[in-house]
């Protein structure tokens, strides 16, 4: 099976030895996104702004792959403070419609660059 690298200039450039996403067959594996502004590569401030930026970054990569949030089948959310979980649900409701993707929310000690939230996703394209 061939692998295709997916990139979007509307999402932060990879800051390590990884791709923004890899397409294998009709499945797209999206790397974790933290709340970097793709223009400045700086972390946005505040939990709500960080969560929105992560969703916008994921959206840009999904679109570069030829998909959308409707194609996400699995979403992983990493939080440094699980007390923000209700806010994540509220914001997620702005981006997703039923049927919602399968999801995990995981509490972690720290994330890159001091981010409060990171997400990765798997899409299946028609």
Low-confidence stretches: none
How far is the N terminus from the C terminus? 17 Å
Order of helices and strands: EEEHEHEE
Summarize the amount of helix as a percent range: 10-25%
Rg = 14 Å
Protein name: RidA family protein
Family: Belongs to the RutC family.
Features of the shown structure:
alpha+beta, RidA_CS, RidA, six-stranded mixed beta sheet, 2 helices, 6 strands, RidA family protein, 126 residues
Could you give the topology of this structure?
Elements: E1 3-6, E2 21-24, E3 27-33, H1 47-64, E4 72-79, H2 85-95, E5 102-107, E6 117-124
Parallel strand pairs: 4-5
Antiparallel strand pairs: 1-2, 2-3, 3-6, 4-6
Family: Belongs to the RutC family.
Pfam families: Ribonuc_L-PSP
Protein name: RidA family protein
Description:
Belongs to the RutC family. It holds the Pfam family Ribonuc_L-PSP. InterPro entries: RidA (IPR006056), RidA_CS (IPR019897), RutC-like_sf (IPR035959), YjgF/YER057c/UK114 (IPR006175). This is RidA family protein. It comes from Metapseudomonas boanensis. The two termini are 17 Å apart. It is built from 2 helices and 6 strands; from the N terminus they run E-E-E-H-E-H-E-E. The mean pLDDT is 97. Strand 2 (21-24) and strand 3 (27-33) form a beta hairpin. It has a 6-stranded mixed sheet with strand order 1-2-3-6-4-5, with helices on one face. The chain has helices at 47-64, 85-95; strands at 3-6, 21-24, 27-33, 72-79, 102-107, 117-124. By secondary structure, it is of the alpha+beta class.
């Amino acid at each position: 099976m061939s692998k295709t690298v997916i990139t979007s200039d509307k999402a932060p450039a990879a800051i390590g030895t990884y791709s923004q996403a890899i397409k294998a067959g009709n499945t797209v594996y999206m790397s974790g996104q933290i709340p970097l502004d793709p223009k400045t590569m700086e972390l946005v401030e505040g939990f709500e702004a960080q969560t929105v930026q992560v969703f916008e970054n994921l959206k840009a990569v999904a679109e570069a792959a030829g998909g959308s949030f409707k194609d996400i089948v699995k979403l992983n959310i990493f939080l440094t403070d699980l007390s923000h979980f209700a806010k994540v649900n509220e914001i997620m409701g702005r981006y997703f419609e039923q049927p919602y993707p399968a999801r995990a929310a995981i509490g972690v000690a720290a994330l890159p660059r001091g981010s409060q939230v990171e997400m990765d996703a798997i899409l299946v394209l028609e």
